[in-house]
């Protein structure tokens, strides 16, 4: 393997390779996948001089630590966290030069859930269906990082953003999700529709890249029949038998048999991905289908 690579010293709770995903394959049963906070992934790529679609690392809550074999420029963004190089503090949200053999340690998120790490040249694992993203549902793409793994890096452009630091939105204290009712809102009672937009919901610790699970009042169905499997989209608010809504995220299944009461606006999904367990959720209706 080329020495333009890095070794994983501490993989963290869940660190995956992500880019902007593999759209257009739902008919094959393959979800889009990709970075759950694509704006953060694009920004760290810009800071190191990569194109927006270059592959980055996405960490979950506890960060990770890696050791590059060659000097490399990195940028850390998304959920705020401490960053060190060989134990010395380094900036978050700005380009950082990491010497060969130095330990880049990206610490636990101080707020939010997912931190993104870009390397100049991008993470150059093999692409599958046009993307290097790890898909936890289908198993496509590289496996989640493990201690001792070595991942290749692409060729660096030699240029990066000339900034000291850049602003990034902070993780939400309250998660506001704008929803359009449908396509199966008529499978629920009128009181259930009211409960969705007035009930006290919180982010469940069972949430993952597939979906944001909620804790709160159950939604009552008006129809108890079996629903044939139908296509699912990112942001679909599916209601399983326990009545607690689940918001589908990037690794969601492409079909499902539980009714979808509403769909979250795509622009709100990055905030959903950065909301830690216990965050209060408010569903706001903005239209009907």
Describe this protein's structure.
With 289 residues, the protein is mainly beta. It is 8% helix and 30% strand. A seven-stranded mixed barrel has the order 12-19-16-17-14-13-20. A six-stranded antiparallel beta sheet has the order 7-6-9-4-1-11, with no helix packed on it. A hairpin with a 2-residue loop joins strand 6 and strand 7 (88-90).
Q: What coarse outline follows from CA principal-axis ratios?
A: elongated
Proportion in β-strands? 25-35%
What percent of residues adopt helix (DSSP H or I)? under 10%
Number of strands: 20
Sheet with the most strands: spatial strand order: 12-19-16-17-14-13-20
Rounded radius of gyration (Å): 20 Å
């Amino acid at each position: 393997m080329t020495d333009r690579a890095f070794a994983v010293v501490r993989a963290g709770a869940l660190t995956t390779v992500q880019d902007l995903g593999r759209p257009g394959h739902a008919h094959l049963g393959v979800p889009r996948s990709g970075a759950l906070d694509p704006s953060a992934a694009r920004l760290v790529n810009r800071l190191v001089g990569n194109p927006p679609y270059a592959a980055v690392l996405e960490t979950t809550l506890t960060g990770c630590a890696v050791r590059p074999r060659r000097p490399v420029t990195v940028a850390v963004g998304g959920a705020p966290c401490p960053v060190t190089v060989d134990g010395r503090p380094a900036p978050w949200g700005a380009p950082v030069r990491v010497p060969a053999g130095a330990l880049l340690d990206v610490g636990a998120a101080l707020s939010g859930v997912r931190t993104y790490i870009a390397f100049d040249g991008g993470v150059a694992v093999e692409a599958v269906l046009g993307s290097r993203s790890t898909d936890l549902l289908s198993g496509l793409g590289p496996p989640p990082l493990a201690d001792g793994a070595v991942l290749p890096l692409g060729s660096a452009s030699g240029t990066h953003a000339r900034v000291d630091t850049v602003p990034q939105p902070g993780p939400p204290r309250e998660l506001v999700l704008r929803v359009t009712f449908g396509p199966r809102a008529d499978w629920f009672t009128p009181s259930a529709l009211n409960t969705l937009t007035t009930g006290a919901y919180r982010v469940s610790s069972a949430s993952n890249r597939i979906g944001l699970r909620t804790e709160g009042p159950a939604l009552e169905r008006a129809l108890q029949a079996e629903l044939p499997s139908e296509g699912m989209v990112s942001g679909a608010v599916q209601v399983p038998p326990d009545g607690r809504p689940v918001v589908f995220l990037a690794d969601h299944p492409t079909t499902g048999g539980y009714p979808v009461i509403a769909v979250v606006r795509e622009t709100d999904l990055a905030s959903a991905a950065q909301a830690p367990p216990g965050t209060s959720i408010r569903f706001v209706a903005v239209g009907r289908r």
